[in-house]
Every structure is written in structure tokens, then in C-alpha cells.
Amino acid sequence: MLNVSFWRKLWSLKLPGKILHFIWRVCRLCLPTAVDLRNRHVNVETMCSWCHNQEENGIHVLFDCVFARAVWEAVGLSDLIQFKPDENVFDVFLRIFTQCTRSQAVAMSLFCWQIWNRRNKWLWEHINISVYGTKATAIRMLEDWKSAQQEESTRRRGQNVGSKVWQKPIMGWVKINTDAAVIPGTHQIGTGAVIRDEDGRFLHARCMDIAGEWSVKEAEARSLRDAVGWTVAMGFIKCIFELDSKIVVDACNGGSGRSNFYAIIAECVEDFKHLDEVRVQFTFKSANVVAHTLARASISMSCFHEWQGNAPEFISDVLSFDLI
Ligand SMILES: [Zn+2]
């Protein structure tokens, strides 16, 4: 991941200004830790004021100090917070932000902010805030952030227009993006589908090539039909199906006719009955890149492929781009 993607991701988290500014300082390596002050010729004690075990640099205060470790343990993020001896605090942020979900990136930022605040309270006022207190304050901030995001996504949905960037489904739902690839003259189409959860986490994907002559709208409808059948079989019950074919979306949401195309749509609608709640919505191609990539790949791989839990290498970049 280029650094520019890192800064874009950081920006897109929509953190409160003071926290964004704090993370920005951390990543520009200008957090005024003891070691940093000494490097700027300020005469201070460089050992950590809490554990007195190591010099206080960014890595130590935020991740490695016994206090920081206890916080990461208490909030269940210690597996994520890994660092190597030669890394600086920006290297660690860069690597973790590349791997983690948006919510984890926000959580990490908020906990770092609280650990730093707590360090200042101890250093300047000798007030000892416990691991529990640090965790509780950051979790409150995380809840505020989540409800602000929820409000924004509700507001956007109210506008009922296709989005140009991929968006996570609402809480408790999964989103299934589907697409078809039609290559004229090959007597073959490819279909692809990907299922992601409310955090944008990858759950499943599959792609399949199908022989025969298909129009573009038939191929799009077929990709949806396969995805619906598959989703029902997997036991998901609240599903948003999203594709970049307006014709298919409109047909599912109330169209009717007599043609091969409408026969496929009727099969989709029949399968919707097995779901508790379902939406079929249009999205722009730019927000449907993962499904598109899968559909294209199915033609070159020419058979059926399915992935669970771990995304195949060839879509991992586009998956992480969707979360930026
Ligand atoms: Zn320490």
C-alpha cells in the first residue's frame, strides 16, 4: 500500500479533528515523547515515566509499555498490534491499517489517543487512570463515532441514488455484489459474487463460467440468480443485493414481461421468499469492482471457484480499496 493510500484511509475514517490531528502527528513522527524531546535538545529524562524500563519513544508509549500492552489486551486488539524491533510508529500504523477493517482502524486510533492522554495525566499531574478507565473512555468515543456513521449512512440511503463508492451494509445485514462478464464471440459468460458483512469484512466469493449465448442483461440477471440461490443456501437472512445493471434492478423491483430475461428474474424473485428481508439496489460500476473482477476471472479460470473466509489474492487489492 502506498503511503498516499494510508493517508486517504486515515482521512476517510472521519475521526474527530483532535484525534485525526493526533494520529497525523504520531505518523509524522512528531509526537513529543521523551526521546523525541531529547532529540530536539530538550533536557529531559528519556526513560518511560510509568515503567522505568525502557526509553519512551512512540512505539514504547503506545504499544510496548506494560500499560499499553494491558490496554490492547483488555480491548482484544493485542493480536493486531504487532511490531518488529526496527520499526517506527509510522511503520506499525501503515502495516496495521493495511490489514485491518475500518472499525479496527478507528478503534486503534481512539485507544492510542486515550493511552497518550493517560500518559500525560500521569506525567504532568500524577493522576493514575486505570486500564479500565482508559478503555471505557475510548469505547464511549467509539460508540459516538459508530452512531455518527450510522446517521450518515441512513441519510445517504434516504437519497436513494446509486453510490459511486462501495458502502457497507447496515448493521445485521450482508451485502452481496454481483456482476457478469460477457465476451462477444466466446459463447461463454462469467459470473461473480462477493458477500461482505456490516464491517465490510470479506465472507465469501465465488465465480463461475457458463456456456451459451447470452445477452448482457440476461447474463447480469443470471449472475444475480446464482448469487441469490447461493446466499439462501448459506443461510443469510437479511441481504442487500447490489449490481450495476439498472435493468435487472428495476425488473426485480416490480417489472414483468415474457422473455428469457424475465424468466430468470422470476426465479430470483421466487428465491427472495426464503429471505427475511431483501433489497435489490443499483450501484455504479466503480462501486462494483470486486464482483466485476471475479466475473472476468471466471472466464480465464473456466470453471467454478469458491472462497470462504480468506479472499483470493487477485481481489485483495480491490477489496481493501473499497474500504478506503
Ligand atoms: Zn513504559
TrEMBL record:
In Swiss-Prot or TrEMBL terms, this protein is called: Reverse transcriptase zinc-binding domain-containing protein
The cross-references to SUPFAM superfamilies, in alphabetical order and at most eight, read: Ribonuclease H-like
- PANTHER family on file: BNAC02G40300D PROTEIN, POLYNUCLEOTIDYL TRANSFERASE, RIBONUCLEASE H-LIKE SUPERFAMILY PROTEIN
- At the top level, the lineage of the source is Eukaryota
Task: Give all residue intervals belonging to the RNase H type-1 domain.
Answer: 177-297
| Positions of the Reverse transcriptase zinc-binding domain | 4-72
Q: Which species is this record about?
A: Daucus carota subsp. sativus (Carrot)
What InterPro entries does the record tag this protein with? RNase_H-like_dom_plant, RNase_H-like_EbsB-rel, RNaseH-like_sf, RNaseH_domain, RNaseH_sf, RVT-Znf
Give this protein's Gene Ontology molecular function annotations: nucleic acid binding; RNA-DNA hybrid ribonuclease activity
Q: Which Gene3D superfamilies match?
A: Ribonuclease H-like superfamily/Ribonuclease H
